[in-house]
Amino acid sequence: MTSTGGAAAVLDRDGLGALVAELRADGRTVVGPTVRDGAIVLAALDSADRLPYGWGVELEAGRYRLRRRADGAAFAHSAGPQSWKSFLHPQRERLWSADRAPDGTVVMGTGTQDRPAYAFLGVRPCDLRAIAVQDRVLRGGRYKDGGYQERRRGAFLIAAECTEPGATCFCVSMGGGPGADAGFDLALTEVVDDAGHRFFVRVGSEAGAELLARLPHRGADDGTRNAAAAAVCEAADRMGRAMPPVSLRQLMGASLAAERWDDVASRCLTCGNCTMVCPTCFCTTTEEVTDLTGDHAERWQRWDSCFDLDFSYVHGGPVRSSTRSRYRQWLTHKLGTWHDQFDSSGCVGCGRCIVWCPVGIDITEEVEALREESER
Questions:
Q1: Rounded to an integer, what distance in angstroms lies between the CA atom of residue 228 and that of residue 11?
Q2: pLDDT (tens digit, 9 = 90+) per residue, 278-327?
Q3: Do 157 and 256 share a structural domain?
Q4: Which of 56, 200, 247, 333 has its CA 20 to 30 A from that of 10?
Q5: Structural domain span for residue 272
Q6: How far, in Å, CA of 273 to CA of 361, rounded?
Q7: Are 82 and 220 members of one domain?
Q8: Is 111 exposed, middle or buried (0-12, 13-18, 19+ CB in 10 A)?
Q9: How wide is the angle at C-alpha 207 spanned by C-alphas 155 and 196, nearest 5°?
Q10: Cβ(83)–Cβ(128) under 8 Å?
Q11: Residues 135, 52, 182, CA angle at the centre, nearest 5°?
């Protein structure tokens, strides 16, 4: 994205509605947070009225609850069960199809055709960093994913800076924070105070500047600018969790024989929830399906997890057959050997793996236990 020098403006609620309307008029599928099934989930929006105005969340290890807010804020909630990975790197995608013609020849078909031009509204800074991580893996790596590249290339990203972190958030200790610093077209910071309900907007690309020019907005006043900056700074001081201040890469490499792996293995169900909700986990497998006649076949790509017993299967059986070995693989790769492959950590501190673990395993607690054991 091309920087525009950080031009700023202010939108009111009507301006946010116009933002969604303009994106839809451009032919984009607008995806954002909304309330459904007892959670704040990501879904296609037909208007800004479907945003979760007045809803917040209560988070803890293995626990997620909606709660009503008195201020009517739309983005004062923490990360839900989905990340934008669900749209850029979907759970299942058809790679190709094949049909046998009456004369016996085989006609090959292309993969999934439905690849809409997305506009993502309300992308948290941790998720912006997660998208950047997946870009390195799926766009810049040795084995590029064509479907991801196409969806990512056309995506318009509107960040929502965090003003109220959850009890399981720890992005600051992972080198991030509640403020958006790069990777967006527009960045919103919601302000609700005596001066009203409004959104401080920063421009991050030429496309963002062009869209903002078409919206009803006003110049950024000092009161709104300062209130937005203060809310983001205060959020950085209210993280619910933190990783220990050590080199996680070195700690993981030195902890392969730690006794703590047995402790966490006694609790882990190897269900793979942590990898499914993680915004950076990218592993996939492929499967072929056919109809009853045998004349039509398809190859599908779908998410896979290193917690799956067959994930490390080679001739003769799986390499990692124990819960201990599979949990250790996930955590040491996420925080350690990911650096060797992609020059960064694989964790952005969103806390989803803590919330959506059925038994409440806390990644920050496990790393702290490994640190204490290594020091002993």
A1: 13
A2: 999 999 999 999 999 999 999 999 999 999 999 999 988 899 999 999 99
A3: no
A4: 56
A5: 248-375
A6: 11
A7: yes
A8: middle
A9: 95
A10: no
A11: 30
